[in-house]
Structures are given as C-alpha cells and as structure tokens.
Write a structure and sequence with these properties.
With about 1250 residues, the chain is α+β, with helices and mostly antiparallel strands. It has 33 helices and 57 strands. The strands form 14 sheets. Strands 34, 35, 36, 37 and 38 form a five-stranded antiparallel beta sheet that branches. Strands 1-57-56-55 form a four-stranded antiparallel beta sheet. Strand 5 and strand 6 form a beta hairpin. Helix 26 packs parallel to helix 31 and helix 29 runs antiparallel to helix 31. This is Elongator complex protein 1.
C-alpha cells in the first residue's frame, strides 16, 4: 500500500487571481504514439546516434560500422563497415566520438577517437577520410547552420574548421585569461567584507575544488548556442582536476570562463532559444541541474529527485523549441537496490521545474539506452536506441487532464504531473495559480499518466499510472471535501519497456482500458485491465480516444474505430456516422472531443498546427485550444479571441461560418482575451471559464454566451432570484429580466417579488429600468429564438413594469414594500412625485409595520434632486409637506420661511396662483388667477400676453363677458404680429369689433370677408367701391409677382398707386427669384459635367470591347450571332409592345434609356439627358429678371446671375461637338416624316435616332444687359 501525503491549501476564492510569476502551462506530456523496432541487429553496441531531417531515418554508429536505418519499415537503408576501411580496429575497441547528418551534402560526418574525420556518402555508401589528427579526437560538434565544425583533440586543443574542412584556428582548451567578457571591478567593497552565506568567511580562504567524479569519462563536451554565434566547452582543469566551462565565439576567440563550481559534471547543453547553458552539479546533500549564463555565472537550478550517489547524469538534451529538457540517467552501482536507468523529461513554468515524464528502462543493462536524441524537425519526438539495438520513437503531445463531468457534482478538477506528485486544483471551489494547487497527491514512483473516472456524479475520482506500472486509484469525499484517499484496489501493468501502456481510460470502478504496442511496429493492442490482474487483449491499429459507453479508437490518428465494451464480447468495428460514412480526419489530430452538433454525434479534432476539424471538414485554422462543455464549444484563437458557440443551434457549415466571421458589435459569442491565452477548463453547469496566460497566471472569465444561456435557462424556469444574483454580480443589465420574456414576467410578478425577497433588490431593479430593449441591442437573441412581443402595445415599457410591480406590491403588503412603491412612482417616464410625496405625508401617523415618514423622505431625497422635490412639494399646496421636505434639505430657513409665511397670508386662489407662477406652471397659475375676481383681471391679461396663453384664457371666460372681448382683441393683435391677419380678423369679427376686423381682412387680402364686414358696418357706397378696387388689384399684382411677370406687376403697382407692395412683396420676390435661378444653374451645370464625363468613360469601354471582339478569331461568328440575338430581341419586344397604348410605349422607351451604370443603352440615355439639360437652360427667362434687378439697384446680384448664365451656355455649347460628333450624326438618316407603314418598332427606332441629333440652341436671342457687364 502507498502512503498518501496530501497537502491542502487555503482555497482562496475570487473572480480573478493573477500570478505575478512567469510562464506556466497547466498541461502534461501525453504519449501519442510510440514506435518500437528491434529488427536492427549488429555486432557491438551503438555509440553515436543522429536523425536525418529530410527522411526521418536513423544514423547509428557502432564499434564496427555506420548504418542508416528506417524504424518505420524495419529496413536497413545503407550500411558501411568502419573496420574494413581501417577507421576502427577490428577487435571492437574503437570509439566513435561524434556523428552528424549533413543534409546539404547528403552525407554523414563521423569522428573517431583515433583522430579520423570521415564523410559517409548516403547515396553511394562510400567512406572518405578528410583528415586525421595524430593525437586523436575526443569530440566533434557542428554548428547549427552546419557551416563550422569544432574538434577537440587529445592534446587538449580546439580545432575549428569550415564545412569544407579548411582549418580556421587551433587554440588550447585551457586558457589562463578569463576572456573578452572579463568583469570590470569598480571598487565597491572587498571580497572579504561581503556576505558569504552559511559557510562563513573562512570558506573563502579555503577555495578547494573537488576533482571530477570517478565515473566521469574526462572527455571535453562541446555545445553550440541556437544561433551558432557562440559555443561552450566543458573540460577537466589540469590544475584542479575539476570541470570548467569556457565560452568561445564563432571566430575561436575566448569570451568567458565559468566561476569555480564545486562538483560540476560532464553533461553540457546550450538552450537553443535562450542564453542558458545547462549542466549538472553534485552537492554534498543533493544532485541538481544548474544553469549558466554566457558570461560563466550561475543562473538558477533545480534538484533532481534522487540522492547524489544513486545515479549519474550522462547527458542533458534540449528539444528544438527549448520547451523540454531531457535528463539521461544511468546507474552508478549496478548492484544498488534502487538502481535507476531512465530518461526524464522536465518542463518549466513559473520558475518551477516539473518532472512530466520518467522513462524507466529497468535494471537490465541491455535494455538501457545507448543513445538518446531529439528529432531536429519535430520538437516533441524523442528517439532512443538501446544497447541491444532496439530503437524506440516517442511522439509526445500536450494535454490538460481535466475531470470529464458535465453535472454540478464535478469540481472542475485539473491534475498536473510533477514527478511522483500530482498537483490537483478544484476550480469549482477556488482558483490557485501554479505551481501552487488545491492539494497534492504523493506517490511512490514518478507519474506517467492521470485519468478521471468516466461515471456521472463520480468524475472527481482519479487514477494515476506510475513509471513502475502501478495504477493507483483515489476517491474524493463530499462536495466541499477536496482531499482524496487511496482505494484498496491497485492494478499492476506488466511492462517490458517504459510506457508500455498509453491512452489510459478509467471506465468503471474496476475496469481500465489502455493501448500498448503490438507485435508489429505498425500495430497496437487494446488492454482491458481489472483489479484482479486479468487482462483481455484486442488487436487494433494505433491509438485510443475516449467515449463514456464505448471507446473511439483513432487509427493512424486519421481513421476511427469503435471499441464497444458494453457488448457481451467486446469488439472493434469501424465508426460511422448516421449516414453510414466512415468518420475520419484528413490529418493527424493531437486533441479530440466528442460532441453533438444539431443533434448528430460529431468528433472534433485539433492538429498540432492549429487546424480544427469536425470529421473531415476543416472548421478553422487559427485555433490554439478548445473545450466542449455541455452544449457549448469554447475555443481560443491566435487572433486573441475566445469564442463560445452553442452546438445545438448550429450545423457543421454554420459552425464553420461562425468561426470564419469577425463577429458583430454585440456578438455574445466573441470575447477578446490576452495574447496567447489557452483554455484550462470550464466549470460544468456554471458560467466560469478558466484561462491561462502566457505568463502563467490564471484568469476566470464569465463568457457572455455561457452566461446569457444560463440566465435564459433560469428565467424560463422562473428562477428569478438566481438570475438576479448572477446578473448583479457580473454586471448584466437587469432590464434583461423583463426583456427576455415580458409576458412571463408580467404573469409572474408576485413570484418575482417573492423570490427577490429584498427591498434593496427590488429598488435596484426598478432604478435600472429603461426603455431600451436589451435583447435587441446589448444581448441579442439567438437566431432560433422567437421575438417577444410587448404585452401592452402603445405603452412605454418603464411605465408598464412600474405600474405592474407597484400594484402587486400594494396588494401584497403596502407597508413592507413602501420604499419600492415610492421608487415605482418616481421611476416612471413622467415621475409621479406629487403622489409619492403625498404617500410620504400620509405616513406621519402611526402605521404598524411601515417605515417612518422621515426614513421614506430621506429615501425619496436619495432618488430625486432636493430642489426638484421641494418644488414639487410646494406644488401640492400643502405647507406641512413643504416644511417637512425643506427641513431635510440643506436650505437656509431664512430663505424659505419668509416666502412660505407670505404665501400663507394670501387668499387661497391667489396663493395657488403665486405658487404656480413661482414654479413656472403658468397654465395652472392662469386657472387659479381667473378665479380671483375683477381686481386681478389686468394681472391675468398681462400673464396671458407674457406667456402667450390666449387659447387657454379664452376657455376660462364666457363669450359674452367683457374679459372675453379684451382677451380676443389682445389675441388678434398677437396674430397680426405673427402675419396671421385673416385669423385675427375672424376673432375681431366674432367679438363685434368690425372696424378692426375689416382692417385685418384687408391687409390679408381676404376680399370676401372684407366685403362682408364692410357691408355689416355699413360703409358708404363710394368707400365700398374703392375697397373693392384696392382688393382686386392687389390680388392681381400678387399673382403676377408669383408668376415672375415682373414688368406687368410693376405696371399695375403704379397704375393703382400701390407702391407699398413694391417693398412688401416685389423686392423680396426678386431676390428669391435670383437665388433660385442661381442655384438651379449650378445644379444643372454640375449634372451636365457629371453626365459628360461618364459618357466619355462608357464610349471608351465600348470601343475597347469592340476592338477585343475584332481581335478574336471567331469575330465574324460572334458578330452574326449578336446580330441574330439583337434582331430576335427587338422582334420579341415589338410583338409585345405593339398591343400597348402610346403611354406604355413611352414608358417602355424610357426604360430602354436607363442612366444606371452598365445598362445596355447607357450612352444613349446620357446623350438624351445632356440634351434635356441644354434645352432647359437655354429656355430660362433670365432677361426679364436681370432688368428688374437692375431697376431696383440690385446690381451685384444681377452681375452674378448674368455671369453664371453665360458660363453655363458656353460650357454646354462647347460640349456639343464632343457629345454629338459628326460621324455619329451622319451614321443615321434623319427622321423627318412618319412613313405609311409606321409601327411601334419604327417609333422606337425614331426615338433612338432623335437622340443622336444635338439640341438646337437659341444663339440669336439677345438676353445680356450691357449695364451689368
């Protein structure tokens, strides 16, 4: 039994918890597939190992030969003997110290300890020696760009050569100088005065370095930086016997020497994308990996999980993208009980190093790795060659181990592997930034895989597969008890090699399913594991993906199989969709998920190149992560967005279109996130999405789509309190409670009030009400949702809700809900402040269970401005209420008490008049003032004149009263001032003021009413005749002025001696006519210019098309075909149009001449429009207007008009040859007479022909005035 060590952390809760540390990903390394090949056999054992980047085959050098081997086929591609050529001794004692694939030369370069540098041609299998060093070679290392090679010799020197093996320099490894990067001392204190740690100052006087370990091979190690500008050499110092690291540049110049590091070991590897050099150091009490900068100073470390005398680190290897550091361990003592021979994969995040995978190769020395290297092209592919010539290729992928539950019992667990510990975070309870966690699970061996139980309500239980083949099962307590305990049942997996079992899935309490390698390299075996150790095997190709009741197998990571475990006998079959088609991906996917799209089961897959597929359909190509939760697909993209799409509302094509769109302004499915964000998990039956930023910090976001879907679900099920609390916390506009379904809301008003059960919450809801429909603006409805119709048409939403809530609260408990009732009155579109104040005033008596009047007034003052409330209280004419409001305000009693005392001393009607006038409620003031008697009529008349309340005033007095007559006269005077003399005459006529009425009618030219009033007076016959003549001539003059007949109007003015009309009507009409003519000319010229430019473009396009047609080999055929088509078109049109009326024929003609760009007759339409403009401008009556303007000394206006008209005529006359060229005019015979056989076809042809003729301009008309120019 394992001993469980569980550490629980404080579950600090919060919407967002950001870590300030850098770069952690809550992801594990998952073995996607492994390829094991043991067909290669040979004498001796492998010594050096390389991977061909172009073919993926392996280059293996042994004591006797060099071999190119393809592990996928198990075939030897090429092979050459090193002993036959004399490069290695035949007794097998030779050593190959370096091997490098040179893709450009299609060769492999190897170096032997004897000193030979040999090139192996991979095409001809020929070996060629390019040089030899007498003292022998200890290492060979090529630069990343394969332009330089560094050799270390037996004489402790470094030889640098080009790729053509031309020597560049040779220097000694051991240099007394520090290098060009030597530190400069500025004299800030002495070494003796500095702090020296726990060892004390005495340690500085005894700087003794332990020599290298006994097992150190004492060979130099060379490693290059990723850009090839620097390389580092680790060698044994001749004086101290300890290792020292020196950094050299590309020219072979020493840059820096490492500080003395006691216990530094042989492993050395420069991080490709960084400035750190990794090595290992043995301390008195631990063994650690240390990092050095390029200046030789230490910069960080982490401790290896074993004692210092247990294992030795043979090598360190960074993968190509610097995300994984492989630590290659070997036994120090083969007889040790806890001997280790393994390869460990480490990842860093938030300055914490995680041991993600540990490949335990056991105690058999033949199964131990002889060579280990990363693939140069695929960063997550690791190659291992054992001493028994077995090659194993591991393809890794990143995965987030999250609990698969979809119910509220699932704690949204995420498990992170860290060596022999599992760091578990329960995101339903808390958000803990890595490397911290909610609790830890301590195991006896390093963990390789973690899986959660796939059973509803029990998905918090997890199982762990460790490197020794043990499966440990942990269960979790109650909902809030996050600790786990180890169960009794432990499954042991027998494995002959590391990670013999992958894709572990926990289906039932005692049933596990996994995949192991098959007998052939291209086959795999499904294992059904039970606690009784029984294992059932079913052969299938490649790897596994999970489903609850059946298991989906991904064959070649492209095609899928169903492994049915519920059948009497488990079976494997092709997985097909509802139409019977096989489900497959076009490319391999590293992450898959099962979902339902529009009710049909579908499989989603994400490739390592960010392509998302639904079956064989590509949905998007910029996806960084995705997760399926309930009915939603959540994704993050490389464009820094998080999308949340409801799968039941979309088809596969709809999903594809949604992911391709940028989203609208209020698109609830789209949310901007920080660059590089990834989804960690989604809390089931909740609105929380956990994202991890590139810095490593976690953020909890409530995605709008998830949130609104949950709110809609709550509101439909009448869970108003849950919806309200969520909306209040997450700042969703509370209008959504009503806008989602107004009918349901109004039908369940009492339920809403009962569930909210809080005065403050009801008040908050009321105060946020506004007329905007949030389901149309802020939170648009899903396309499939029906549009909700307002249940009370014609009324404003705020008024409907306020009235409904107020009436319900008054019927339930008016005393308890008194404050919300006040809010409902105040919040209406027209606030009912007087009613609210009156209700507050009524509280001055003792009312059991109700708030006090002071408290209610204080609340009302919180809602309404104190000055507005004071004015409204004054408008109630209740001085007790006014005093109560004034006392709660900050007004000075010296300001309002004298005014109130003055009001109290007035007669009631005059008092209310004074109050209303003070509040500027003039209509009410007039109403009260009209009741104050005769002595206040003049004051009322003055108020009417000031505020223009004539109509209201007339309604307050009887028609036979003198006040009515006085008001009518005042009103008539006002109407005359407003140029409404005829209406003024009507008022005066009906109130028996005929003289004033006659004058008003005469001034308004209302001759009929004027004659009637004149006869009513009555006027003498001579005056009546004179009045009739005056009225008649005035009407005639005004008609002539309106028709712009200036000279005739002027003649009548002087004939009837009505010079007053000149000032009142003629001159303003002249200026208006000038302005209108000028504006009309500008508009016509602008339109003419635009049509003229467009005509040139159309003609150019048609000419180009004609020339293109002539260049075509089939031009004659096209010409004939177009003629036939044209003729048939007109013939068809003739047959239809012949039966039409002349009006319809003209309409059809106008449709032919369309100015729409691209229409067939656009050029003819433009010519017709240009001709119409010329004709219209040419016929303008400018001459008479110019003469009238000059007569009344409007010279500037006349000059401007004459100039504009002249320029317009010149522009149009100059354009005639361009618009109607001679060739075009002569190409058609003029139509002068109608032929006897005239028909519709002839008529349309004649119309088109007339368009080709230019308009005739009146060049002989003299319109200009000499006095103006």
């Amino acid at each position: 039994m394992f001993t469980n060590v569980i550490r629980e952390l404080h579950p600090g809760c919060g919407l967002k918890w950001k870590s300030v540390l850098q770069g952690c990903k809550m992801r594990n390394l998952k073995l996607l597939k492994s390829l094991r090949s043991s067909e290669l056999q040979g004498p001796g054992s492998p010594q050096c190992f390389a991977v061909r980047a172009d073919t993926g085959s392996l280059l293996v050098a042994s004591h006797y030969s060099i071999t190119e081997y393809d592990p996928r086929t198990g075939q030897v591609v090429t092979e050459a003997s090193l002993t036959a050529e004399g490069f290695l001794p035949e007794d097998g004692s030779g050593v190959v110290v370096g091997l490098q694939d040179l893709a450009e030369l299609e060769s492999a370069c190897l170096a032997t300890a004897g000193g030979d540098v040999v090139l192996f041609n991979l095409n001809t299998c020929q070996l060629e020696c390019f040089g030899s060093v007498d003292s022998g070679l200890t290492s060979m290392s090529w630069s990343p760009d394969e332009e330089l090679v560094v050799l270390t010799t037996g004489q402790e020197t470094i030889i640098m050569m080009t790729k053509d093996f031309e020597p560049i320099t040779e220097v000694g490894i051991h240099q007394d100088d520090f290098g060009e990067g030597k530190f400069i001392t500025v004299g800030w204190g002495k070494k003796e005065t500095q702090f020296h740690g726990s060892e004390g100052k005495q340690a500085q006087t005894h700087m003794y370095q332990n020599p290298a370990a006994v097992w150190d091979d004492r060979r130099p190690r060379v490693t290059w930086r990723g850009d090839g500008q620097l390389f580092a050499v680790s060698a044994i110092c001749l004086q101290t016997g300890a290792r020292k690291v020196r950094v050299w540049n590309r020219e072979g110049v020493l840059q820096a020497t490492s500080e003395p590091i006691n216990g530094l070991e042989q492993a050395l590897c420069w991080k490709p994308s960084g400035s750190l050099i990794a090595s290992t150091q043995r301390h008195p009490n631990k063994h650690s990996v240390v990092f050095m900068e390029k200046n030789g100073l230490l910069h960080g470390d982490f401790t290896l999980p074993f004692s210092k005398d247990q294992s030795k680190v043979k090598d360190l290897l960074w993968n190509s993208d610097s995300t994984i550091l492989a630590v290659w361990l070997e036994d120090i003592h083969l007889k040790c009980l806890h001997a280790v021979s393994a390869v460990q994969l480490w990842m860093v995040g938030n300055y914490h190093w995680y041991l993600k995978q540990s490949l335990d190769f056991g105690r058999d020395s033949q199964k131990a790795p002889a060579c280990v290297c990363w693939d140069p092209e695929r960063p997550l592919r690791l190659h291992v060659m054992t001493r028994s010539w077995t090659s194993i290729t591991y393809d890794w992928g990143y995965t987030t181990e999250r609990s698969p539950g979809l119910d509220a019992a699932d704690n949204a667990n995420v498990a992170v592997i860290d060596g022999d510990k599992i760091l578990v975070t329960t995101f339903r309870q808390c958000v803990v930034p890595p490397p911290m966690c909610s609790f830890e699970l301590q195991l006896a061996s390093p963990v390789n895989q973690v899986t959660f139980l796939c059973q509803p309500q029990r998905t918090n239980q997890l199982a762990a597969l460790t490197s020794d083949g043990q499966i440990s099962v942990y269960s979790q307590g109650g909902l809030y008890n996050v600790s786990l305990k180890l169960l009794e049942g432990i499954v042991t997996v027998l494995q002959e090699e590391p990670l013999a079992l992958r894709q572990l899935l926990w289906l039932e309490d005692e049933l596990f399913v996994g995949v192991s390698c098959g007998l052939l390299p291209t086959s795999s075996t499904i294992l059904m594991l039970r606690s009784s150790q029984d294992q059932e095997k079913y052969g299938v190709k490649y790897s596994v993906k999970n489903h609850v009741k059946s298991i989906t197998l991904q064959k070649k990571i492209c095609y899928f199989l169903h492994f049915c475990v519920d059948c009497p006998k488990p079976s494997v079959e092709d997985w097909r969709d509802s139409s019977g088609c096989s489900i497959n991906f076009p490319v391999p996917c590293v992450q898959t998920a099962l979902c339902s799209i529009s009710g049909e089961e579908c499989l989603l897959g994400l490739t390592d190149r960010s392509h998302l597929y639904a079956g064989d359909t590509e949905l998007a190509s910029n996806i960084s992560s995705f997760a399926v939760c309930n009915d939603f697909l959540l994704i993050t993209t490389h464009s820094h967005t998080c999308r949340c799409l409801q799968l039941s509302m979309l088809s596969v094509k709809g999903l594809q279109a949604a992911l391709a769109s940028d989203g609208g302004q209020n698109d609830e499915t789209l949310r901007r996130v920080e660059r590089g964000s990834r989804i960690v998990t989604v809390v089931p039956q909740d609105t929380r999405v956990i994202l991890q930023m590139p810095r490593g910090n976690l953020e909890t976001v409530h995605h709008r789509a998830l949130l609104l879907a949950q709110l809609r679900k709550w509101l439909d099920s009448l869970r108003f309190r849950d919806a309200f609390e969520c909306m209040r916390k997450l700042r969703i506009n509370l209008n959504f409670i009503y806008d989602h379904n107004p009918k349901i809301f109004l039908e369940n008003i009492e339920t809403v009030i009962t569930q909210l059960n809080s005065i403050n919450h009801i008040n908050l809801f009321l105060t946020e009400l506004k007329e905007e429909d949030t389901t149309s603006s802020m939170y648009p409805r899903p396309e499939s949702s029906p549009v909700q119709i307002q249940p009370v048409p014609g009324q404003k939403k705020v008024d409907v809700v306020c009235d409904a809530l107020r009436s319900t609260m008054e019927s339930m408990d008016p005393n308890r809900f008194f404050l919300p009732i006040l809010t409902a009155h105040v919040k209406k579109t027209v606030p009912e402040l007087e009613i609210a104040l009156q209700k507050v005033h009524e509280l001055r008596g003792e009312t059991p269970g109700a708030v006090s009047a002071e408290e209610a007034l204080k609340y009302l003052l919180f809602l309404v401005n104190v000055n507005d409330l004071y004015d409204h209280s004054l408008g109630t004419y209740d001085f007790d209420l006014v005093l109560m409001v004034a006392e709660k305000s900050q007004k000075d009693p010296k300001e309002y008490l004298p005014f109130l005392n003055m009001l109290k001393s007035l007669e009631p009607n005059y008092q209310r008049y004074t109050i209303d006038k003070h509040l500027k409620r003039y209509r009410k003031a007039l109403h009260h003032l009209s009741k104050c008697g005769e002595e206040h009529f003049l004051e009322a008349l003055q108020l009417v004149k000031e505020q223009k309340l004539y109509s209201e005033a007339l309604r307050l007095y009887t028609t036979d009263s003198p006040h009515y007559k006085a008001l009518s006269c005042a009103y008539a005077q006002h109407l005359v001032e407003q140029q409404q003399a005829e209406q003024a005459g009507l008022l005066l006529w009906r109130c028996r003021e005929p003289a004033g009425a006659l004058q008003a009618f005469a001034s308004s030219s209302s001759w009929r009413n004027a004659i009637c009033v004149a006869q009513q007076i009555p006027l003498p016959p001579d005056q009546l005749a004179l009045l009739a003549r005056d009225l008649d001539c005035e009407e005639a003059i005004l008609a002539l002025i309106t028709g712009a007949v200036w000279e005739e109007a002027l003649r009548l003015i002087y004939m009837h001696n009505r010079q007053d009309i000149t000032e009142t009507n003629l001159k303003p009409a002249l200026l208006d006519g000038n302005d209108n003519s000028t504006a009309f000319l500008e508009a016509q010229v602008a339109t003419f210019t635009r049509h003229r430019a467009r005509l040139a473009v159309v003609r150019e396009q048609k000419e180009k098309a004609r020339l293109d047609m002539l260049d075509c080999p089939d031009a004659e055929l096209y010409s004939e075909a177009s003629s036939v088509m044209t003729g048939s078109k007109y013939s068809h049109s003739n047959s239809r149009i012949s039966s039409r009326s002349s009006k319809n024929r003209r309409k059809a003609e106008r449709k032919k001449l369309s100015l729409k760009e691209g229409s067939p007759m656009e050029d003819r339409a433009l010519m017709y429009a240009l001709g119409e403009i010329i004709t219209t401008v040419d016929k303008m009556r400018v001459h008479n207007l110019l003469k009238a303007l000059v007569l009344f000394q409007f010279d500037k206006q006349a000059e401007k008009l004459q100039l504009a008209y002249e320029e317009a005529l010149q522009t149009m006359e100059a354009a005639v040859p361009e618009v109607w060229p001679e060739g075009l005019q002569n190409s058609q015979a003029p139509v002068n007479t109608i032929q006897p056989n005239f028909n519709t076809h002839t008529y349309i042809y004649a119309c088109f022909t007339l368009v080709l003729a230019p308009p005739k301009m009146r060049n002989g008309v003299k319109w200009k005035l000499t006095v103006v120019t």
